[in-house]
Amino acid sequence: MLTLINTNRMTPAIGPIGLEYVAEAAALAGIEVDILDLALCDDPEKSLREHLSHRRPTLIGLSFRNVDDCFWPSAQWFVPDLAELVRRIRGLSEAPIVLGGVGFSVFARPIVEYTGADFGIHGDGEQATIALVRQLQNGRQFEQVPGLIWRAAGAVRSNPPAWPAEIDLPARRETFDNRTYFARGGQCGFETKRGCNRRCLYCADPLSKGPVSRSRRPDQIADEIEALLAQGIDVLHTCDAEFNVPRSHALAVCAEMIRRALGDRVRWYAYLAVTPFDGELAAALRRAGCVGINFTGDSASAAMLGTYRQLHRQEDLVTAVRLCRRNGLKVMIDLLLGGPGETPRTVAETIDFIKRIAPDCAGASLGIRVYPGTGMVKALTREGPLDGNPGLRRKYTGPIDLFQPTFYLSPALGPEPARLIKDLVAGDPRFFEPMVEQPDAAATDHNYNDNTELVDAIRAGARGAYWDILRQLRCGSS
Ligand code: B12
What we know:
The protein has 478 residues and is an alpha/beta fold. The protein has helices at residues 17-28, 44-53, 79-92, 102-106, 108-115, 126-137, 178-185, 205-209, 218-230, 247-259, 279-287, 302-307, 314-326, 344-357, 375-382, 417-425, 452-459, 466-475, and strands spanning 2-6, 33-37, 59-63, 97-100, 119-121, 148-152, 155-158, 188-190, 193-194, 214-215, 235-238, 267-273, 290-298, 330-337, 361-366, 368-369, 392-394, 406-408, 431-432.
């Protein structure tokens, strides 16, 4: 028996889609699967005890979605809680423990070492978990398990990440309680591809999902959406890095949804790169049921777009907003303020520009989570040793340790960068502002970590992407 446990208790609750895919693939391969969803338990400690007391699994799998909340200055780190959970499970069961998940895959080896887990899977979990169960039952040839991290003779060993080119994923989405997730989380996810071939300076997606885009079959995606619809779940969010990379696959997915008239029955939101985006794609998205797009804008300053290695330019932002308006799509531009070389002038240029092109809303995040293995680290080490870099912010003490939440914030923004941005936003309600470092400051940001404003709105019936729900609450329009 394979016991799979969802460990993510953040609210609003997001369904553990990755773990559900793993569970359904394992069941399809003939493995007996057993589920414990700690997000939906009132007393997780008690549920864990009761659940494990009368089961003897071959393997216990824990999903670890968020390593930290990626938000400065809250900078919450969740790895110590995971280590504590592993310790508690050890006291309740002798089964080996495997870890996996998107956040996990960014830091796979250090997390296995820190938590003392037996195994970890870096990358896609479906076939790797099946292979691990088989090897535990027979042979223990761990070199044959894709993406596996394991302990042997006192050392931690690892195979190359599991990023199979072919994704055959006939998901039924019946293993977790997606109805409850819809009621508590306001939307459910669906995935159309994995991996990204872009090289944005700060992004960890190529580390967890691989450096090339690997697409799912449009018919399997549409089947999955129909399965969710059959459960009464009709508001969705893509779980791809960028839905429109590559554009051809985005169009193919939309075409299949249009062919099945899903656009009349479902509303969905997506993350998109600013380019490629054109009239044909915008119209297809709308006809397929997409109602809102969150663009990875990052900046509107040419210098900063170059630093972030973004492919779009100011005029592409203009086009994106215009095409969304023309096609009835709500539009959010996500900004990443404070990167290397950011100055009060480049921030002002960006905020003024965004105000002028008038998206429905804009996320003004301040500070960039620095992940090991990204271009950010290379750029910063060119300036000198990380310890002593005046731009690095963290809440822990001691030497810089990128495993723990560590953020970069351009020193040129001065001693009160959040205040600077607030002044530039000047009360424009379309902007989600960075949090000012004061204990009594009212939240005007878009941190979805334990966000009670969102939890309450969803309980009262709001559905959709969180930026769209917050936007409606703050701007009062639908
Ligand atoms: C879509 C998305 C969102 C949507 C979710 C919508 C929805 N209904 O699902 C929204 C906007 C709500 C969101 C919010 C947040 N997100 Co988000 N999100 C994503 C995104 C793009 C996709 C995640 C996803 O579902 N992937 C698809 C699934 C199928 O993949 P998967 O989970 O990796 O699962 C596979 C493997 O990991 C593995 N696996 C999974 N579980 C297990 C378990 C075992 C035992 C094994 C062996 C394997 C295994 O197998 C699975 C199938 O192959 C990722 C980035 C990315 N490209 O993945 C960021 C990402 C996960 N988010 C992130 C963050 C930080 C957050 C927030 C905390 C942000 C915030 N402060 O508000 C919140 C947290 C919300 C919550 N309650 O958990 C970070 C996490 C990084 C980190 N430092 O830990 C990511 C990686 C983005 C980033 N690079 O910064 N997010």
